[in-house]
Amino acid sequence: RAMRLLETHTRQFGKLRGGVLADAPGLGKTVTVLALILQTSGELPSSPEAFWDSTTIDESFAALIKSESELRRECLRGLRSVISYRDTWQRKSLPYNEADQLLHSSLPPFPFQSVSALEAHVRRGASRLRYATPAIRDDIKLDFAHAMALTRCRLDGKRRSALLGGEGKRALAERALKPTGGTLIVVPDALLEHWRAQIGRHVDLRRLAPSFGDGRSGDGCCFVYGWGCASRWHPDFQRGSRERHPRLPSASDLRRFLIVVVPFSVCRDAARQDQDFRRAAERRIYRHGNAQDAESSPLLQLRWLRLVVDEGHELVGGDGDLEQATSSFIAELFAERRWVVSGTPTTGDVDDPAIVRSHLYQLQKLLKWLRHPRYGLDADPRLDTREDAADDSERRKALFESEVMAPFCDQQSESARATLVALLRTVTVRHRKTDLKLPSPVYENYEVEVALRPGETPDDDSYQWRVDEALADFVCRTKANHRRPKIAVFSQRDGDLASVAEALYARLHGGIAEFDVQRLGHQASARELVRFQTDRREVRKCPRCWRENDVDRKSCHHALLEVLLLDDDELARRRGDALHANLPEAERINCGRRLLIEPERIVGLVATQTPTASPQVYADDWRAWTVGDELLITLDDGSFAPRKDAETWRDWGCRACVERAAREQFESADWFLGPLRPPHSIVEGAVRV
Questions:
Q1: Are strands 684-688 and 561-565 parallel, antiparallel or unpaired?
Q2: 655, 622 contact by CB (below 8 A)
């Protein structure tokens, strides 16, 4: 509610709308931002102020009607979406005819005597396209409105002097960009998986799907860099994995999403490319819009409804040139509403004598990024010279120092404190844990005593193992005495918990998540952290062998064993008959005596070059497998995943795989996990690896 008030206290173009969400850590800032986005779903950024006279526009448009060819070019610029949609259908079909009728009725000669009447006609026509998706209808309306806004700028030459000011330049620049109702969320790379998990857990995309994409699949609701559209990975739709080579979609694709989440690394790469481009050009580049600058990022080509930066204190805490360039790149994004999300908006050593001034300088940088009307940014290096932008920045900084910093730090008067508090209240939303009146934590110290045995020292491995077992027993007792507890076991030194974890696995048999807090950006650690938070491990089941793999795996990591049957050829013949029960002779495959088996089928060891304790140990350790080992395996189905029949494999493209196997001189047909057990009789067989 407080964030919504800061966004709606004014609707005037170019004014501060947004602020800093500074809730204490653990209070759900991510969920709060998602709730705000869903509440404003369907809204578009306000149009820049019109620097033209309506009467002049109507007179110029009436004169333009007489020049039919020029007016036709103006209209066609805004009707490209209609043409693209029409050409996706077969000629003379009903959807084609609907779009074609809208196209020709919007081109001269027509009865409309004003730009507003022509825009209203296109809006009504787009709404009547029965076979168009909601996203396509919106594209048609927005593209035409954008083209007509540029037409108005060209038709009125009387008030162009108004465009020379800072606000006028910004209005003209933003009119050149296509508006989108989406929210761009820029997050640290380590939190990308966290945002994806929170969206999947808290956002019901099935309720949003009718308004995006094709209106059914959820396509176009949400985009997370590295995973793509939510229709691929959201729990309400399909399961998907992380993309191997992620890339940012084009601006026309990005504008269709309600939520777009990208990491800092994407902005860092874009900033580096921009720096190289500027050095090579040795001139000021107008970077926004695909017509003016082919090097511009898709993020710079849109006018976003909202820009959110998670852990936003990093915007004002960068030390290197690249970090400063990244912060500048994010600041250059056009967005009507801006939010910094951070539990610690200002950082630093609290014991530093100059910490107060440091915090206030960081506050001024945040106000500059938020576009504060007095202490923020007016001149812009995108629209003005770099010298003018630098001079304006220094002037605003000096104003902040004289009106806020100096009275607060030097005079320390009550009025100076009131001024600072009043300023913070205009841009800050903050809740503390004490505001929620949560129960206070209970701290209890326990000692686990492990006595030394005769002749034993504290450095002995046997004693250390018994200490680890005692710690594991204590954790298990604590878990048993509480209802669904969350237990975090940690150590200040690396490696201390390796044997404790081994003892815990032996007692709990699962339900354990392991991650290194120093490597939370790593995929495995981030995945385990989500598993700890949600009590759920995301897996992908292999459709061939049913093995559960990590959700990010592109292929199954179940090791299989290639063996050769040592029994007579009768068994191979009967297996072949079972496989080809209903196949014509031309499609039959020679099964031979080779098999590809699951290691769990090993029931006995006949002769192995690597001595092992049991068949189970041999099966679990693929490094013990040696060519020439003789084993005893079970051919029964048992608890194994049922092997697919020949018809299923043909649907999966088995013929091409078989031809490739023949070229590589692979003798067996069971390499694709087809039927293994012979009919009725033999359930065990001797094989050689």
A1: antiparallel
A2: no
